[in-house]
Amino acid sequence: MKIVSYNINGIRASLRLGILDWIKEFNADVYCFQEVKCNESLTQELLFPSHQINLFETVPENLLEGYYPIYNCGSRAGYAGTMFLSKIKPDKIFYGMGEFWQDDEGRTTTIVLGDYAIVNTYVPNGSSRLEFKMLYLEALHKYLKELQRSYKVICVGDFNIAHNEIDLTNPKECRNKSVFLPIERQMISKLLNLNIIDCFRFINPNLVKYSWRSYRSRQEKGYQGWQYRIDYILASESVKNQLKNCDILELNYSDHLPVVAELEI
Length: 265
Fold this sequence. Notes:
Layout: E1 2-7, H1 11-16, H2 19-26, E2 30-34, H3 40-47, E3 68-72, E4 82-86, E5 92-95, E6 108-113, E7 116-122, H4 126-147, E8 152-158, H5 182-192, E9 196-198, H6 199-203, E10 212-213, H7 215-219, E11 227-228, E12 231-236, E13 243-248, E14 259-263
Parallel strand pairs: 1-2, 7-8
Antiparallel strand pairs: 1-14, 2-4, 3-4, 5-6, 6-7, 8-12, 9-12, 10-11, 13-14
């Protein structure tokens, strides 16, 4: 099973850049998108357009044929939101985090595929709402702990936290900046202490690679600028022997880069 986690920074912008062709060509089993920034009805129309045809028109190709869409776009227009595209029809779908967290921003969605619960999360940015971010992370910790009672858990998404110095370009300058605050980094450690592994770091213990970069660093060759590894695929330790690979792909559909894990399931 190939799982992709990707903060697309707006479904409309990424579609204009051609992400639909990449989705079809890459052929993952499950795509987990964050920051959809679009309501459900418009997202549905953009990805699966209805089209009235006449005798002189050809039926447009549906590039996403075979995928089940699961939307959790929230109620704030143009803000946050998560969604799945899954080749496998989910057995169950959970919106939010049950008793631990309910919000109107569409930040957490879970699909159950057999013995596996895949959690798609978009952790709040702490620059303006640090307390909100920490409360969300505490709820996520409780939620994953509860899910692990029944399922093998795979939790993916944009966590807006670089865990260790290897995960960002300017650790000293970021010590007092939300993305690398000690209390934020401790929360990643707390999640990992739930018998959970960071799939990328498990496969690549010493590899320096980032999943978010400033627009300047994207445009100017050789310019490092601000770059972070803040997008993760976390998994229950019981899954680690099935993990074959985990990588960060170099693409230009967003300011983030997708994280991909391949599991033998």
